[in-house]
Amino acid sequence: MNLSFRTILAGSVCALCFAACAPEAPAPYGAVPTPQQVAWQQMETNMFCHFGPNTFTSAEWGTGRESADVFAPTALDCRQWAATAAAAGMKGIIITAKHHDGFCLWPNPVCQHTVAQSAWRGGKGDILRELSEACREYGLKFGVYISPWDRNDPAYGTDEYNEVFRRTLESALGDYGQVFEQWFDGACGEGPNGKRQVYDWKLYHREVYKHQPEAIIFSDIGPGCRWIGNEAGYAGETCWSTLDTVGRAPGGNIEREALNCGEVGGEAWIPGEADVSIRPGWFYKPSENDRVKSLDDLLNIYYASVGRNALLLLNVPPDTRGRIHEVDSTRLREFRAALDEIFAVDLAAGAAAEADNIRGGCAKYGPQNLLDGDYDTYWATDDDITTATLTVRLDGEKTFNRIQLQEYIPLGQRIAAFRVEALDTAGEWAEIARGTTVGYKRILLTDRITTRALRIRIDEALACPVLNGLGLYLDEVLGGAAFTWEKAEVAGRKMKAAEPVELDLKELRTIGGFFYEPIHGGAEGCIVSYDLETSRDGIRWEKRIADRLFENVVNNPIRQEVRFDEPVEARYLRLVPVRTSLPGQYGVAGFGAL
User: Residue 546: CA atoms inside 13 Å, Cβ hemisphere, count?
Assistant: First the structure.
């Protein structure tokens, strides 16, 4: 009895001492995420599925005039999509429930351009039903993409359309279970003389939250998450999860740099989502079966998205059967296997950590918390300390080339500059990496480093630093040092905006169409809309195409292929820019006949 009493008393005293020494946790700094936003970021990778009439027409932006019968998958299997995503380690699937052509993959009662009007399954099909059920079966979250731009609905461009779109959201979000993300695309290619729709975003958001109160709403300014500013899948080297939204609207005039890098001290927590397709285009095309991104491509994208404080949304478009193509699914399995191999062994395990400042001198906020694998424990400094040094002594010599850091984002994003040093064989500290922001996760790519100790220097923070994760890994799949996104130069020309580009085929040929590719990933400007003319003799020209858009060329400046309605006999082709993405200029990497 006495021994037990003494034991209990001693334990109580220790607990009281620990509680007494523990200062209050750091106060949240600036804008902070909701619990739903934290859970969303922890998903890390999700699958995008672009599927619809464009799958069968090889278009990127449908016209809205396609017959509903064009949509005719021969062996739809949403369970196969879900199984593929789960095997790739993805946590959710977002489906293009309605793209810009206005065609709905479910029987939307306020639309006359849906699966219900198609011959597929006698008008009884419902992709949202099948996919939402498949996601639940495979433990995945279910999300929907619904484009507010509609090239089919006759009400588009009028006040009436806002109510039509509200009811569209009601139909899609109210009958298929939980929706984790509502994706709003800001694209609109109507052109200067096209229909102008004033979107009622407040109405749309209220409707989303009415049916899905915990959903993350995507647009270029959120409010749940933001577009990362490109369709290549990479966030900025500096990537804040905060953004200023006053005076900005979805689809508005926000700068690409602000999207890519966020804004330090921004008023709202709107983390970045990096969307990219596993193929050059967003919808399935048989001609791209041999152009699926390589394993190295996908690993580089992972490091430049998840590894830079963004979520990766990887588009894997189902084919005309309604299945993920074998080439894509094989590459996804390779991608998952590579990530599993790279991150299987944390070389920081067993290390000891020390810091030049610990909040209140209390172990509750000690540096060892970075190594315990618990997301909710962290190292923090006193409130007045915004520069600090953390030293990690490894369990023997370790060789690595990936350094992973994590900030405890429920308390806000704080770190603005840091360096990593390694102890060399002479016992001197040498810098091996540096960065600006950390956020939810930062993965630094270095040369192969062999050392027995690391030192992390926080050079600048907006408030006392709060770190909850450190890992060291050896990537022998990709290897190498930091990846650069600058593309190799392509032979091409920079043109004046009014200057056409001509092609001489040297002889009269029968041609089925033409292709155009911007130079330097669109950095010199792109042709947005164009006229295409042909000639047999170079004197008399015939206009074959008038003021047509290159679909999505600004955001995804890849090779654009256009087919004529029927073959044309010509020796000369002339591409005449009508509208360009940059004033006064555009670039041509390639222009040729098909």
Answer: 2
